[in-house]
Amino acid sequence: MDEKKLAIIATKGSLDWAYPPFILASTAAALGYETQIFFTFYGLQLLKKKLALEVTPLGNPGMPMPMGMDKWFPVLGLALPGMQGMMTAMMKQKMKSKGVASVDELRELCQEADVKLIACQMTVDLFDMDQAEFIDGIEYAGAAAFFEFAGESDICLYI
Amino acid sequence: MSEFDQELDASGLNCPLPILRAKKTLGGMDAGQVLHVIATDPGSVKDFDAFSKQTGNELMESKEDGGKFHFMIKKA
C-alpha cells in the first residue's frame, strides 16, 4: 500500500484556528499519511516557541458565548480592553475541562510523528521575525517547495 | 471481555487524543498482540472503526458498557 500524503497550508494565528491543522496532521500521521504543514502569514504564530494564541469574538458571530453574553453585550462591548484575554482564558478552561489537548501538546505529537513543519520564508522576512523565536526542527521554504509535495498529495487543505 | 496484552485508559480525553495514544501504544507492541482501549469520547466509536480500516490493525471488538467505550485492537 503506497503511503498517502496530506498537505496543509495554515494561515491563521488564533487559538481556535490553531486546532484544525494540528489535529488533522497528527491524526493523518497516525493513520500512516506522510504529512506536511506549510505555515504562512499569521499561521507562523503557531510555530513560535512561546505560543501566545488568543481567541476573539470580534467578527465571529458563530462563536458560542459563555453565560449568554451575546444577549446582553452589544457588539462594541466585545471590543473593550481585556475582553479578548477573558475570552481566551475561558476558552482554554473549557478545552481543558473537556479533555481537548493543548496546542503545544498537539504540535509536539505532530513533531513526534514526523509531520514536516515548514515556515514560509517570505513571511518570516516580511514581518522581520527572528528564527530564534521558532521551535526547532522546522524548515524554511517557499511556494515552489510547497508544490513539490502538494502536487503529489492525495489531500490538500487550506486552513 | 476477551484477553488482551496491554490496556490504554483514554477516559476523559477528546478527539484526536484517544487515537493518537492508541497508535503510540500499538507502536510498542508486537504483531498479533491485542490492545484494550477504554474511552469516554462518543466520537471514538466511529474513529476507531476508521482507524482500523485505514491502518490494517483489526478492531476485534467495539462495545459500550456503563458510559465507557471499549475497543479491542489486534496489531497487524
Regions with little confidence, pLDDT below 50 for 5+ residues of chain B: none
The gyration radius over C-alpha positions of chain A equals 17 Å
How far do the termini of chain A sit from each other?
A: 28 Å
What is the general shape of chain A?
globular
- Write down the CATH class of chain A: Alpha Beta
Give the CATH topology of chain B. Translation Initiation Factor IF3
Number of helices of chain A: 6
Tell me the domain tally of chain B: 1
Could you characterize what this model shows?
Chain A is built from 6 helices and 5 strands. The radius of gyration of chain A is 17 Å and the shape is globular. Chain A has a single domain, classed as Hypothetical Protein Ychn, Chain: A, CATH 3.40.1260.10. A 5-stranded parallel sheet of chain A has the order 4-3-2-1-5, with helices on both faces. In chain A, helix 1 (15-30) links the parallel strand 1 and strand 2 (34-39). Chain A is of the alpha/beta class. In chain A, helix 1 (15-30) packs parallel to helix 4. The longest helix of chain A has 16 residues, at 15-30. Chain B has a 4-stranded mixed sheet with strand order 1-2-4-3, with helices on one face. Chain B is α+β, with helices and mostly antiparallel strands. The model of chain B has no long low-confidence stretch (mean pLDDT 95). Chain B starts with 5 loop residues before the first strand and ends with a strand. Chain A binds chain B through residues 23, 26-27, 30-32, 98-101, 109, 113, and chain B through 12-17, 19-20, 23, 40-41, 51, 54-55.
Set down the secondary structure blueprint.
The complex is a heterodimer of chains A (159) and B (76).
Chain A: E1 5-10, H1 15-30, E2 34-39, H2 69-72, H3 83-97, H4 103-112, E3 116-120, H5 121-126, E4 139-141, H6 143-150, E5 155-158
Parallel strand pairs in A: 1-2, 1-5, 2-3, 3-4
Chain B: E1 6-10, H1 17-27, E2 34-39, H2 44-55, E3 58-65, E4 68-74
Parallel strand pairs in B: 1-2
Antiparallel strand pairs in B: 2-4, 3-4
